[in-house]
Amino acid sequence: MSWQEILAVTCIVIGFIGGGYLAAQRPAFWVEFFTRLLISFIPFANKYISKRMTPEEEKAYQKCIRQGGEWDSFRKRCK
């Protein structure tokens, strides 16, 4: 590596560190950062959180509740 390449890489690294430092000083940056992160994560999480039961599981669930049982959500059966 020549001295020009070392100087160029050093300037780029210093620029990234300086930009990160200036951005991290502002609390509004972190609020917006985590807000955008959460908003982008919601569709991914929603796929697993709002998964519906199949009609067969729903019937078994209703039958279990009518009989006074307790439904096991992980094993999908009455306890």
Describe the structure.
By secondary structure, the chain is mainly alpha-helical. Helices cover 73% and strands 5% of the residues. The chain is built from 3 helices and 2 strands, in the order H-H-H-E-E. It has helices at residues 3-25, 27-49, 55-66, and strands at residues 71-72, 77-78. A two-stranded antiparallel sheet has the order 1-2. It is rod-shaped and about 80 Å long. The relative contact order is 0.06.
How would you sum up the global shape?
rod-shaped
The number of strands is: 2
| Mean model confidence by pLDDT | 87
Q: In angstroms, what is the radius of gyration?
A: 27 Å
The secondary-structure element order is HHHEE
Helical/strand content category: mainly alpha
Distance between the termini: 69 Å
Task: State the low-pLDDT regions, or none.
Answer: none
In terms of DSSP E residues, the strand content is: 5-15%
The helix fraction, in percent, is over 70%
